[in-house]
Write a structure and sequence with these properties.
The complex is a heterodimer. By secondary structure, chain A is mostly beta strands. In chain A, about 0% of the residues lie in helices and about 55% in strands. The termini of chain A are far apart. The model of chain A has no long low-confidence stretch (mean pLDDT about 95). By secondary structure, chain B is mostly beta strands. In chain B, the strands form 2 sheets. In chain B, strands 2, 4, 5, 6, 9, 10 and 11 form a 7-stranded mixed sheet that branches. Chain B has a 4-stranded antiparallel sheet with strand order 1-3-8-7, with no helix packed on it. The N and C termini of chain B lie far apart (about 35 Å). The mean pLDDT of chain B is about 90. Classes of the chains: A mainly beta, B mainly beta. Chains A and B meet through strand 5 and strand 10 of A and strand 4, strand 5, strand 9 and strand 10 of B.
Chain lengths: ~110, ~120
């Protein structure tokens, strides 16, 4: 089955700096890669996703890149703000069937 | 309802008792997922339903855990003879499969405490 690894497990950045979180997956059948943000005590919520027919996607300060050959994808947050502090999870899914999540990255944005 | 709904929100039970956790997915969503999240940890996959069948039950930790889905809608996760290590937040999610929008939407979770 699918296995998703995620690095780093914790990340601290200064406000205004960029943050990068990287994930790898194992199943070549996976073609949908969402990223979820989970604030303390709340449910995970989708922030951005990418499909295998696209190499990069951007939404304001957030971007995701995908390298299908290497089976890795990354989340990039620019101009970080304190409200970006949360746990971020990547996931891999074949056509939306089942979602296997990475172990999460705890991002702290320091003022 | 507009989103995924789980009940109860909180459940405290005595060790050895059975518990049932309920998930109402978004109407029309064909796929339903159960995850377990211990404090400060990641999302541990438990089981995935496509319609009423479960193609992947590989994440269920032991035979004390079972789940069913009826009518392609509501799902129940049952934990028999609960143990203290079962204490966690149990999250349910649902999604469409195969369409243009395959985002998984999460419920608010059920916080289970076994005492």
């Amino acid at each position: 089955g699918e296995n998703v690894e995620q690095h780093p497990s914790t990340l601290s950045v200064q406000e205004g700096d960029s943050a990068v979180i990287k994930c790898t997956y194992s199943d070549s059948a996976s073609n949908y890669f969402p990223w979820y943000k989970q604030e303390l005590g709340k449910r995970p919520q989708l922030i951005i996703d990418i499909r295998s027919n696209v190499g990069e996607k951007k939404d304001q300060r957030i971007a995701v890149t995908l390298n299908k050959t290497a089976k890795h994808f990354s989340l990039h947050i620019t101009e970080t703000q304190p409200e970006d502090s949360a746990v971020y999870f990547c996931a891999a899914s074949p056509y939306g069937q089942n979602f296997v999540f990475g172990p999460g990255t705890r991002l702290s944005v320091l003022p | 309802g507009a989103g995924v709904s789980q009940s109860p929100s909180n459940k405290v039970t005595e060790k050895g008792k059975d518990v049932e956790l309920r998930c109402d997915p978004i109407s029309g969503h064909t796929a339903l997922y159960w995850y377990r999240q211990s404090l400060g940890q990641g999302l541990e996959f438990l089981i995935y339903f496509q319609g009423n069948s479960a193609p992947d039950k590989s994440g269920l930790p032991s035979d004390r855990f079972s789940a069913e889905r009826t009518g392609g809608s509501v799902s129940t996760l049952t934990i028999q003879r609960t143990q203290q290590e079962d204490s966690a937040v149990y999250l349910c999610a649902s999604s469409l499969v195969g369409g243009a929008n395959t985002e998984a939407f999460f419920g608010q979770g059920t916080r289970l405490t076994v005492v």
